[in-house]
Design brief:
Layout lengths: L6 H8 L6 H12 L5 E10 L7 E7 L2 E8 L3 H10 L3 E4 L2 E2 L8 E9 L4
Antiparallel strand pairs: 1-6, 2-3, 4-6, 5-6
Length: 116
Amino acid sequence: MAVDLSHRMARHARGRGHPGGRGAAYAEVARVLRHGGRAVVAFHTRDAENATGSERRMDEWWDHDIDLTFRFLSPDHELARLAGAGLDQVARPERLPGPGEHPSERGYLVVERPGG
């Protein structure tokens, strides 16, 4: 699978990343998973400068001009959205950053479509 990281694709996707859009994305995940199928949702939860629920705007990254809003998500809120889409929680691991990674805490939600 190829991923288009061009500026044109970034401009196209920019307006589609608002918080309300995740509920629709989770509903689509639930729709395409077979019964008993699982998915993992991974995200950053906080770092030293950004609390859970906050946003960080970036206009430069790796010497390139960008327009990026980085969101630090709440595992509880994301799990509620996933449950609203009809997915059940299987696991909820969290971890600290590893060497060379951005120094933020990460959350993972393993969810399953019921009926397996």
